[in-house]
Design a protein that fits this description.
By secondary structure, the protein is of the alpha/beta class. The chain has seven helices and six strands; from the N terminus they run H-E-H-E-H-E-H-E-H-E-H-E-H. The N and C termini lie far apart (about 60 Å).
């Protein structure tokens, strides 16, 4: 059997592959399985929260960028092409719900995970209507964010235990 050198520049990017039986939105789950670390963009208007989330996600995830408002989150999502965007609801510029809606309308492949203080069922419903895959309460970040991201990547929905119980 002859071995041939493969030029990485000639490989088809994973994001352009068509997988039979898989929607284009699920290609990020396939990329995660093949490539390893999940690429995450964080968006919150509180720097201390961004730092805390970074600590929770640790070495398991690749934090590709951060944003302090919804408009910057949209720009960074388009520029960085993350697998997951973690959004706060209450941010200046565009709020998280508007940002998620824009991502959904533009057919961005990233899964959206909300990380918020809002426990009201109306916010939860609005988040999923805007295209969310998961909804995590900030007080549960240490226990719920990692499984929420994993579930989102596997095509499942996740809601913090504090709300779902």
């Amino acid at each position: 059997m002859a071995l041939h050198r493969i030029d990485a520049c000639q490989l088809t990017p994973l994001s352009t592959l068509t997988v039979v039986g898989q929607s284009p939105q699920d290609k990020n789950a396939i990329a995660w399985l093949v490539m390893g670390k999940i690429r995450v963009l964080l968006a919150d208007d509180h720097v201390a929260m961004l730092d805390g989330v970074r600590a929770v996600l640790g070495e398991e995830f690749d934090i590709v960028g951060t944003a302090n408002n919804g408009r910057d989150a949209l720009l960074e999502a388009r520029r960085l092409d993350p697998d997951v965007v973690v959004l706060d609801i209450s941010m200046p510029g565009l709020n998280g719900l508007q940002t998620a809606g824009e991502l959904k309308c533009s057919h961005h492949r990233a899964k959206v995970v909300f990380l918020t203080v809002h426990e009201d069922p109306d916010f939860v419903a609005a988040a999923f209507a805007a295209g969310a895959s998961a909804y995590v309460i900030k007080s549960d970040v240490a226990t719920d964010l990692v499984p929420a991201i994993r579930d989102a990547m596997e095509g499942h929905r996740y809601i913090s235990q504090a709300i779902s119980s």
